[in-house]
Model the fold of this input.
Amino acid sequence: MVPLTGTIHYEGRNIGVVLNKNTDTETDEKFKNRLHWDNQTGLFTLSDLRTEDSGGYTVESSKDRFLFISFLHFFPENVPAPQVTSSSNSSSDNTVCSLLCSVINGRGLVLFWYKDNFILNRTSSSNLNAILHLPLEIEKPKNDNFICVVSNPVSNKTTTANITTLCYHSPEVYSQCSAQWGFCCGSNRGCCVSQEEKMAKGIQSAHRRQVFVWICSLDS
Done:
């Protein structure tokens, strides 16, 4: 509080002066039109707060002869949900599935891979314009829960990796099957379930309870 005469400083530099109730709060370009002094209460106010306003503020009053130090800290916004995708298998025998978790970076953001309740790895970056990527390789088959978590000091979001969808569908097979019958299930080579009774060239069929299971071959 500055009832009559005093100053306000930000990180050691003077940003506002009150002299016999005459004020000048326009000297610092950073706080221009945002720093105000109330001649009734003697209080300084800062409007339109921004992340870069974080730091230490010092108020000195000649009348009351006291030093008041205030620290502002702005936490990041709520985080977006991470995206999990699969990439090419890294082993020639198709026993390894490569997962990739990605999210747009933000202030204070950290990206994690969890297996059940254990952290497998993590990453972060000071480059706020970057997209964070966190890879993970797992051996097939795996029934464990793999979860990608993005967090900052105020929030977190999770995405669970669907291993069946991400690791057991060959993209070529999936496209071939879904284009013809519209539904696919998981296997190493892919399969389609259909009520269609028409035989297709190069595709084998097996009758099960009025439902045909079409086994799709990559070279068919």
